[in-house]
Amino acid sequence: MILHGHPLSGNTHKVRLLLAALALKHEERVVDVTIGAHKKPDFLALNPRGQIPVLDDGEARLHDAQAILVYLARKYDRASTWLPNDPHEQGRVTEWLSLAANEIHNGLHVARMHFLLGVPIALDQATAIAQSSLTLLDAHLADRPFLELGRPTLADLACFPCVGLAPGAKISLEGYANVRRWITRIQALPFYVAMPGLEVTR
Ligand SMILES: N[C@@H](CCC(=O)N[C@@H](CS)C(=O)NCC(=O)O)C(=O)O
Hints:
Elements: E1 2-5, H1 10-21, E2 27-30, H2 41-44, E3 54-57, E4 60-63, H3 65-76, H4 87-117, H5 123-140, H6 154-164, H7 177-187
Parallel strand pairs: 1-2
Antiparallel strand pairs: 1-3, 3-4
Residues 9-11, 33, 38, 50-53, 64-66, 101 line the site of glutathione (GSH).
């Protein structure tokens, strides 16, 4: 299995965490987004959208972190711990994959890309979207340890990296105590692997 990504990419980290949780051996290939390697023909042949991550698993090639998470969970998580089979539970987990790909992406992620890579964006708008996602997450996490089902699921893996990387988007997590506790809880999971900006600090 080959994960095409980058050490500083939150979307790559979502996949890296599930690969670690499922103890799936893989090779990581760095696509250097800092020099535009993701827009070069070689990489566009892997993903016409010109985005990381991309996963190659034998005959299967997939892009988009959420799609890759679903694929890996369905294929390799025989106990369906990460993506439950029950239709209602699966729908609830998927709601968070959608938040990750929409509001969290358009707020926290794009703001961080602006500061990291100089990507031009409407910063005020991205910051407002980021704050509203954090407010929603903080309220939801007030009385539960993880986003759904009382245990870590794809919902947490999809949302966690870009939320934990908020300081890189120049957005403080100071006012979001429940979110900060959730980040610590995820980082305490036995399979947790760190990335720059998401090191375990305790
Ligand atoms: N919907 C995609 C978004 C992936 C994404 O935005 N990846 C970033 C790096 S973390 C990227 O490749 N950005 C370059 C671009 O969008 O041009 C996913 O969830 O994987």
